[in-house]
Amino acid sequence: MIKNTMVRDLPEQERPREKLIAYGVQSLGNAELLAILLRSGTKEASVLRVAENLLSLYKERGLASIVNLSAVQLSRIHGIGPAKVATVLAAVELGRRIAQEPSKKKIVINGPPDAADYIMPRLKYETKEKFAIVLLNVKNQVLSFRIISVGILNASIVHPREVMAEALNNSAAAIILAHNHPSGDPAPSGDDIATTRRLIKAGQIMGIEIADHIIVGGNGYISFKEQGLMR
């Protein structure tokens, strides 16, 4: 636990901003990075203490839980007012957008690990279950990423017509199915397997390959292809 020492009382080389400039951003801990965003603490608590108080509230779920904090939740923390709330939320959203920014170079999916690397930043922080598809051309290059539905995955909310329409409209040769489990456990449910098989059959009729189904949960994933479930 960081002692309640005011930043101004620290040696200059140990102050977060000065430390970042001198040694690089990688040299800072999470609380120090947050302290730079928050800029100041209160009369009773240093900015480092306020930052650590924020982190400690969500320590069981990890740093990534900050991505889903609302303005109301942040403002409940003593020492974080409207201006600091806006700064933290803006920084988090910039980080999210950077992670999802498509590369100018065409992304090629050569197997489940490549698919997971592409899909996880787009779904891992979602608090609702979302079903998406990755559309590929004949060279396995990514054409686009589309959210098809929001809600518990079952045949009633994921219709083959919607999935195949996206593929046809984008001239896709193959599709990777993807969805997230907000619970953190990527293990497929019976509905996950049934829906996948239904879409595989539809793809066979339309001449569009369903290459894999990636389920994202927490920091892990499950590939139907790796698990032998693509049949």
UniProtKB/TrEMBL annotation:
InterPro entries: MPN, RadC_JAB, UPF0758, UPF0758_CS, UPF0758_N. Keywords: Hydrolase, Metal-binding, Metalloprotease, Protease, Zinc. It comes from the Bacteria. The keyword Zinc applies. Residues 108-230 form the MPN domain. NCBIfam families: PRK00024.1, radc. Belongs to the UPF0758 family. This is DNA repair protein RadC.
